[in-house]
Write a structure and sequence with these properties.
One of its GO terms (cellular component) is terminal bouton. The protein is mostly helical. 79% of the residues lie in helices and 0% in strands.
Length: 139
């Protein structure tokens, strides 16, 4: 039983040291606050350096992107986005399609595999029909 009593004394001694009011407590708090301020300032400075580094890297990337756009004559995405924003959201107010645009869309829709096959067969049948008609003379 003596062993449990000694561990209890250590705990209370440790507690008294932490709670004790010797007057050094205010100095410790000031030192801790100063250390915390320094730590926060160091974090802030590191964050600013990191942001500046990334800003410079992004500028370099943007220069490279622009060189590529210029070389291949590609419009910048912002320009494309502006063109898309000009179209109104209301479907009744959208730009009307020309007959040529409608015909092009219809042609694209017709280009599925089955339709291609059907068109090919129809073309061949019509060619054979015209060949036969030219050879046969009706009396």
């Amino acid at each position: 039983m003596g062993g449990s009593h000694s561990s209890e004394n250590r705990w209370t001694l440790g507690l008294q040291g932490a709670v004790g009011g010797d007057g050094d407590d205010s100095d410790d708090k000031e030192k801790e606050e100063e250390a915390e301020r320094e730590r926060q300032e160091a974090i802030r400075e590191a964050e600013e350096r990191r942001k500046e580094k990334h800003r410079k890297m992004e500028e370099e990337r943007e220069k490279m992107r622009q060189e590529i756009r210029d070389k291949y004559k590609i419009p910048k995405k912002e320009e494309i986005a502006e063109q898309q924003q000009q179209e109104p959201d209301n479907p009744l107010m959208r730009k009307k399609k020309t007959p040529e645009e409608l015909a092009a869309e219809a042609e694209l829709e017709d280009q599925d595999e089955f339709t291609k096959l059907k068109n090919t067969i129809e073309t061949q049948v019509n060619e054979l029909k015209s060949q036969i008609e030219s050879k046969c003379v009706m009396q």
